[in-house]
């Protein structure tokens, strides 16, 4: 197998590691590309390509995350990870960990960790790397890495509980939700929402968002019921699909351009949170991006026209 073939075989794993550390599709792709350049330029041929390449992409991702955190301190409004439609890496033996770790909720919990804690946690808990490999990757002793994992686990457990493990139940609930959403049925929507549900948007100041968010089943249900009919009248489309391994949707304008993405957090048979990403800088990998502000203005005009 050539060096290029080895790299391509491992590319899905490298991207998946980088995405979970950085929370960014673009930055993960950049880290993978830089890893290839270093692999191509390396005169040595390591015993394990997987160990070498995973170490390089992890170190690059840690550096990216450290600089990104400075930028996030001045980010306008809530910050969410870039939406991921498909995780390129799969491992039947770790499917539960992989699915759980890519959800918006889990990635936001990972934000509580230091870059080093996050990297060690991802390598150990998500991908099952041995402590010897992890220690060599991050330049710490095995004992120090074990302590980092213990600390990271504690921070993660302090967050919200795991979401529904049964994918079929989640998908069935999401189907009922989007049906009620399409029909503007306030009562059905309210029944599907947790009492303390939150609807929050990440726009980065570059796309429409809902002020500080909306909270509570009744308020969110009424907002949702009023939202879709005028959006549909101007040709807007809601495309239900998996986003970050969770039920979600892509909103498109009449030309099929992406306006935003939604993800639904499901627990105990109810939707706990609806997170939307409307920052156009975070949507380019999903597809051609539309003008969210223009769609909002047109939707509002269509809504006023019904009164």
TrEMBL record:
It holds the Pfam family Sigma70_r2. GO terms for molecular function: DNA binding; sigma factor activity. The keyword Transcription applies. One of its GO terms (biological process) is DNA-templated transcription initiation. The keyword Transcription applies. Residues 105-156 form the RNA polymerase sigma factor 70 region 4 type domain. Keywords: Sigma factor, Transcription, Transcription regulation. InterPro entries: ECF_Sigma-70_Domain, NTF2-like_dom_sf, RNA_pol_sigma-70_dom, RNA_pol_sigma-70_ECF, RNA_pol_sigma70_r2, RNA_pol_sigma70_r4_t2, RNA_pol_sigma_r2, RNA_pol_sigma_r3/r4-like. It comes from the Bacteria. Gene3D superfamilies: 1.10.1740.10, 3.10.450.50, Winged helix-like DNA-binding domain superfamily/Winged helix DNA-binding domain. Residues 7-69 form the RNA polymerase sigma-70 region domain. Interacts transiently with the RNA polymerase catalytic core formed by RpoA, RpoB, RpoC and RpoZ (2 alpha, 1 beta, 1 beta' and 1 omega subunit) to form the RNA polymerase holoenzyme that can initiate transcription. Belongs to the sigma-70 factor family. ECF subfamily. This is RNA polymerase sigma-70 factor, ECF subfamily. The lineage of its organism: Bacteria, Bacillati, Actinomycetota, Actinomycetes, Jiangellales.
């Amino acid at each position: 197998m050539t060096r290029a073939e080895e790299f391509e075989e491992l590319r899905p794993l490298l991207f998946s590691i980088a995405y979970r550390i950085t929370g960014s599709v673009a930055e993960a792709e950049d880290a993978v590309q830089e890893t290839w350049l270093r692999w191509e330029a390396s005169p040595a041929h390591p015993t394990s390509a997987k160990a070498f390449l995973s170490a390089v992409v992890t170190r690059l991702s840690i550096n990216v995350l450290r600089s990104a955190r400075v930028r996030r301190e001045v980010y306008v409004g809530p910050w969410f990870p870039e939406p991921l439609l498909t995780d390129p890496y799969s491992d039947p033996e770790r499917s539960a960990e992989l699915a759980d770790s890519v959800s918006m909720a889990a990635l936001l919990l990972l934000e509580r960790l230091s870059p080093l804690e996050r990297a060690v946690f991802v390598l150990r808990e998500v991908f099952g790397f041995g402590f010897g490999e992890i220690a060599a990757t991050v330049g710490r002793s095995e004992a120090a890495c074990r302590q980092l994992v213990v600390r990271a686990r504690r921070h993660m457990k302090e967050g919200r509980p795991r979401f529904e493990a049964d994918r079929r139940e989640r998908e069935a609930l999401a189907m009922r939700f989007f049906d009620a959403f399409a029909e503007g049925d306030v009562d059905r929507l309210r029944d599907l929402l947790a009492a303390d549900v939150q609807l929050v948007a990440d726009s980065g100041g570059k796309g429409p968002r809902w002020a500080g968010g909306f909270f509570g089943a009744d308020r969110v249900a009424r907002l949702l019921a009023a939202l879709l009919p005028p959006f549909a009248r101007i040709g807007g489309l809601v495309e239900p699909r998996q986003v970050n391994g969770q039920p979600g949707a892509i909103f498109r304008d009449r030309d099929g351009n992406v306006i935003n993405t939604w993800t639904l957090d499901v627990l105990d048979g109810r939707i706990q949170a609806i997170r939307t990403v409307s920052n156009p800088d975070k949507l380019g990998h999903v597809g051609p991006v539309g003008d969210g502000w223009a769609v909002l203005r047109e939707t509002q005009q269509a809504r006023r026209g019904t009164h």
